[in-house]
Amino acid sequence: MPFVSIIIPARNEAERIPALLESLQHQNFKAFEVLVVDDDSMDDTMSISQSFGATVLCNEATQEGAGKSAACWHGVQHSKGEWLLFLDADTHFTTPDSLGHLLEFYRQKGARGLLSLQPFHHIKDMYENLSAIFNIIVIVGMNVFTIWGRRFKPAGSFGPTILSNRDDYLASGGHKKIEGALMDDLALGEAFLDEDLPVYCLGGKGVISFRMYPEGFKSLVDGWCKSFALGSQSTHPLVMMMTIIWISGSFISAGALISSLVAMDPVAIVLTGLLYLLYAFQTMGFARRSGNFKRFIFLFHPILFTFFAGVFVYSLFRVHILRSVNWRGRKITLK
């Protein structure tokens, strides 16, 4: 394997980054360097990263909202590796062989283009289960997880875990080209596709995990709000239509069950009850491929879909009317 530069953009990640840095120390593959690019943190991110032996750099963002992309690009300028691995600070490798397996898969693909993984979502607090539908839609929205396989062009790439060789990264323009893009993960994947470089999107179960929005309910809403209105624009229309039909099915099954209960029709109650339960089991099956969500919450799947719809509408309002979103203590103005 070639030498790998692991670049971690970090802003106020003192509570989350230790798990990642510790998991890196335990990897059986050792030919890598770790560069933590501090993005104007106001906590102990820098000192904690240094305590794990990481090289800490200071971000040199040149414009508002360019933080993560500028940090990644700055890290590349100081890196030595032939391959570049970008990791979000809230991720961590699942086993000591995870990094080696990830690199080996990339090599089997010819070590060309971009490989991205959506980490397995590790749930701790009950409110985090509200992310279940979002996790499903994020994966489906990449266009490549359908019965048509890779017939559709990928919508971009997953942001938390991105691997590329240096030559292809620079040929695409890298994070410098997409500086200022709100959805940097989608934009980077599109930059590779524009240069006819392959983009691979995979689930990260068994390889890499993360815990999304542990700060609380508001952080969860702000995070998904930032992502969805713009991200949905890159989803193939057919995939989007099928997703809307699937979401509608939850409300239809719930409505049919309620109607049968009101009418006190025993046969209808049994049939609509079975339909409602089948929808619950199907949704649970999809969601638990992407995270360890509590099984019982899917008995209330209309609530999960209602929350998703509410945040999506709020996201459309923030992006297209207010032209701004909030994230990590910053108000990001959209052009």
From TrEMBL:
Signal peptide limits: none
Compartment list: Cell membrane
Pathway connected to this protein: Carotenoid biosynthesis; staphyloxanthin biosynthesis; staphyloxanthin from farnesyl diphosphate: step 4/5
Keywords in alphabetical order: Carotenoid biosynthesis, Cell membrane, Glycosyltransferase, Membrane, Transferase, Transmembrane, Transmembrane helix
InterPro entries: Glyco_trans_2-like (IPR001173), Nucleotide-diphossugar_trans (IPR029044)
First-listed, main subcellular location of the protein, grouped into a coarse class: membrane
Segments passing through the bilayer: 130-148, 238-261, 267-284, 296-317
Family from the record: Belongs to the glycosyltransferase 2 family. CrtQ subfamily.
Listed name of the protein: 4,4'-diaponeurosporenoate glycosyltransferase
Annotated organism of origin: Salinicoccus jeotgali
